[in-house]
Amino acid sequence: GLERGAKNQFSTFSNFITSINQKKEGIGNRNSPTQLVIPNIKNVRDLPPICLDVRQKQRISIDTLPQELKAPIPPEPSLPIRTKTVKDFQDDVEKSKSSGDWKAVHDFYSTTFDSFLEINAAFKKDTNSPFNTIEDSGINAKFVNVVYDALLNTPQDVQKSVLKGIINGLLQEWKGPRTKDDLRAYCILLQNPQFSNTSTYVIYAHLLRQIAALTEADHHFLVHWSKKISQRRFKQLVDRLLQFISLRLFPAKPEEFPPMVKCTWWIPSATKVLALFNAANSLISPPIISYTDFYNSTLDHIDLMEEYHNWQCYGNSHRFSFCQYPFIISIAAKKVIIQRDSEQQMISIARQSLVDKVSRRQKPDMNMLFLNVKVRRTHLVSDSLDELARKRADLKKKLKVTFVGEAGLDMGGLTKEWFLLLIRQIFHPDYGMFTYHKDSHCHWFSSFKCDNYSEFRLVGALMGLAVYNSITLDIRFPPCCYKKLLSPPIVPCDHNTLVGISDVTLDDLFQIMPELAHGLSELLSYEGNVEEDFYSTFQVFQEEFGVIKSYNLKPNGDKIPVTNQNRKEYVQLYIDFLLNKSIYKQFAAFYYGFHSVCASYALLLLRPEEVEILVCGSPELDMSALQRSTQYEGYQKTDLTIRYFWDVVLGFSLDLQKKLLHFATGSDRVPVGGMADLNFKISKSETSTNWLPVAHTCFNQLCLPPYKNKKELKQKLIIGISNAEGFGLE
């Protein structure tokens, strides 16, 4: 019976997802969101994308909207008159607690939740006002919170009466489109704390199914209303949905739920409703909760590659995949997908090379299975540039580095050193490719014009190789860089399409040039006469090799004064010039370099912040976590030498701790999965205690002689980690 009124299989939901933030292609409208046209609704704003459609990019217009969006808003039915206030209710609860007679409270709950009309009668701020805009849901949030906070402390018969009323509401036969009162009821019911209990999951699932099956316009209202929920309540709603998904995937007591084959719609429904909250969270800056609060770590234990392949094969069709909703997949799980996708590409490319060799009747060579980079330390950048340019067809093979004149064998350690030295040299201020901004402690692309941008392509390829080969880099780009790197996430087939152009804001500029951003912010808030006091035009100036050059922000910009009326346009054009136009060729080369290695649909799963974590790892060092996860060979963790070691390391300064991490692993950054993912090992070295410690960076292994006391260990360890460049074989 519960399935009546919920037969809809979300036919318009996928369309809603792909239409709310469509991107225009071309120069004139770079990535500007398409306006969602809804009749009779004022101040409708675009939503951020709820999930991705990699195969279909289309403009939405009133002609292509589903019939539900064109239909006039149905009249709201008249509501019963309910006069109980928050104080009245609280008084009733207190009286019931003291007397033990819960009749008044029971009557209130059973009446209020008996139907959607009664829910609105109780919780609508003004029953005579329509509240049919996205700006105000009309819900008396304080009253809702008080009623729900008291509910779990009432007798069982009261709680059962609420659930019975919700079932009645869900069983209602629906004719025509939903009213705003219906949407208000859904919004209120979602906040019911009873749905944290697995015994209510059947009812909760049907509620989620009906919400997921609503029209695009209805979802639009729910998203905007949800962003007004307090942070604590919002987090509770998200956690409840994540718990529902986790327990349906891996139930503690399978007998509590119907068989999976009879409720395959449970997880898709919950995920689609969760997507609405994710969209609401993205509408606010700063967001209500962190994007990581939407991660469901339970998904780390399912067959992610099957999910990924289903998504690749079926896209956003009616076949559900968690990859349609990447916000729910943790960065650790996304890293696994990217790594396995990379490995499959490596194997495919290597196999093709082998087949080509055999078909030409040539003897196979093991080196053909790798991207072999041979460089001289004295000519590091030029040799690397030449090698990568010559071996462009091999970029997707496993990387192997050789330093000319050195006997080191690359099992991963030489690769890490090559990345480290190359990045250090390229980003040096004297090299001129990047400008270091001291205020923001980050690098940005130099706007100096040059004849050849191949070195920017090299840096992009390096970043791509790092992600592809699971190497973390010590690169300090602002978040804006990674947003541009995913604009678009898949290289367009049309080479005339602009790449690396993103919608940039004053916040983006603050992350790079905070002083200039502050000045522009002051201009926007200036209360005097901007034209007379600032005497500026739509023209900016930049110094290039000692020569001051001028650039118009718009045609004839040098003749257009900045005024109180057009200053917002001036600031936006100035930011766009600094972060997009003035460095377009540099960043385009960087973009193509990165995607020449990392061309994968898996990039569509990533947020800019997640790309940064994959490239750079985390700078936060937790040596206590490293101590807990360290493995030992020849030592026990209770041995005196090991105890000396950790006493010394935990007492090191941050700089020395980073040097130790770099000495032992080849990088001073922490990988995505934290210290435990390093698989750090301390082995006993049977050499003389006069020797320094030795590291095998390929295996994240430290070989430690059994030093006799803490002072000697500290002295030898500091000498070793402070002089750690170059490789040799014993």
Automatic annotation (TrEMBL):
Catalytic activity field: S-ubiquitinyl-[E2 ubiquitin-conjugating enzyme]-L-cysteine + [acceptor protein]-L-lysine = [E2 ubiquitin-conjugating enzyme]-L-cysteine + N(6)-ubiquitinyl-[acceptor protein]-L-lysine
Pfam families assigned to the protein according to its UniProt record, in alphabetical order: HECT
An annotated GO BP: protein polyubiquitination
Pathway: Protein modification; protein ubiquitination
SUPFAM superfamilies (UniProt xref): Hect, E3 ligase catalytic domain
Function: E3 ubiquitin-protein ligase which accepts ubiquitin from an E2 ubiquitin-conjugating enzyme in the form of a thioester and then directly transfers the ubiquitin to targeted substrates.
Listed name of the protein: Probable E3 ubiquitin-protein ligase HECTD2
Species whose genome carries this gene: Ciconia maguari
Gene: Hectd2
